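Re-running the complex after MR caught last week's input typo. The corrected sequence lines follow. Everything else is unchanged.
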Amino acid sequence: MTARLIMKMKVAAVAHEPNNVTVYTLSHPLRDRLADPHPGAHVDVRTPGGQIRQYSLCGNPDDPSVYKIAIKREDGGRGASRWFHENLKVGDTVLVTTPRNNFALNLEAGRHILIAGGIGITPFIAMARRLARRKAEFTLHYCAKSSHAPFLAELREICGDRLVTHFSDVPESRFNPVEALKDALEDTHVYFCGPQKLTDAVREATAGWPEERVHFEVFAPTLDENFNPEPFDIVIGSSGKIIRVPANKSALDLLRAEGFALPSSCELGVCGSCVCTYRDGIVIHRDSILKVSERQDKMLVCVSRARVRVTLDL
Ligand code: FES
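Corrected-run output:
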């Protein structure tokens, strides 16, 4: 676990895309070179009220002088996107972390199939730019309500005929994951991000694929609302100390109360900041991002729990 640097960044430009999407260009007042904006990476952005949200970097991955993020206004959401839309303007300062990449391209792959739905398109802008620059073989499937979709002109310019659009108001263009994946070879990697219906469909279509060839990004938790938490014990590996986690608290809460300075961001199991290594014990994984192989020894302590007891490498 490494805490990420939090920077005070300036809003250098604001632009608007269709469907209530605003693009913010962020620069650092003192540094003209930022940590590399690797394709697929996201930053955490904080509102003055303390809400933290993850946004993919959607600018040019070869330009580390600025970060670009796109925020879709969600009026039915928890309020952060509305705050950004209503308040953030050119010249303002905003707290932003250095990037984290849970959605990196595998540049060894022979072919890449990128599948985006709605605002899930944002990480793919930089990914497509990088793949196009490397002359890699790729296809980007973009599912949107209509041709009045964010970033469409930019994507057409980047991807050319490697962009395949699927618009809800054009029924014959409907996205079919089986069709999209039908030419996949053994060295093809698939990447997807978007609404749950889309990601579930792609997961199903890739169920038999080796997990290292399947990459996804989520920004909303897929927590089961019927889950009934039970108390459990954490054993601290280095000291043997036992910490009881009651049903109404998270492991993260209790570890912090015991003095462990654990980083966190989303506290929803979608960003990976709070990952801990464990040994012994049966973990009830409730995050939305760890792969099956990672779940053998890693847990996200903001949401995941254990049956009876788990030993953490702390
Ligand atoms: S804080 Fe984001 S996954 Fe735990």
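None of the earlier attempt is carried over here. The chain has three domains: 6-97, 111-217, 232-312. The longest strand covers residues 6-17.
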